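Entry:
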Amino acid sequence: MFSGQNRCPYVRRAGFGDRLDGTGTEIFIFSTFGTDDFITKDFGVTAADSVASGLPETELDGGYRSSGVTLIDRRYLTRNIHLIAQAGAELYSNDIQDSPVAREDYELEVGLSIIYQF
């Protein structure tokens, strides 16, 4: 979620509870920034794409990309089976909201993982 050379997130993390075994609930509040190339790659429209899609050609400037919040809960169901539940929301910058590629002004995400540890 936060990887990539062209994206530099500033993250503030808070955990709840006193567990030291890796389980529990955490909340992440973040803002992301990117270069011109990185933001245009995801939300821009090249000349060739414009001809093919009918969308207006769009090139975005680098800088602020988005802010959001993610909630993660980790539990051990058994010694070998772990459950991770995640939910998050991300609000895009005004430039990205105005892009013809962005269907919404925000992104919502929900995930559930079951992990088996050998």
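The chain has a mean pLDDT of 86.
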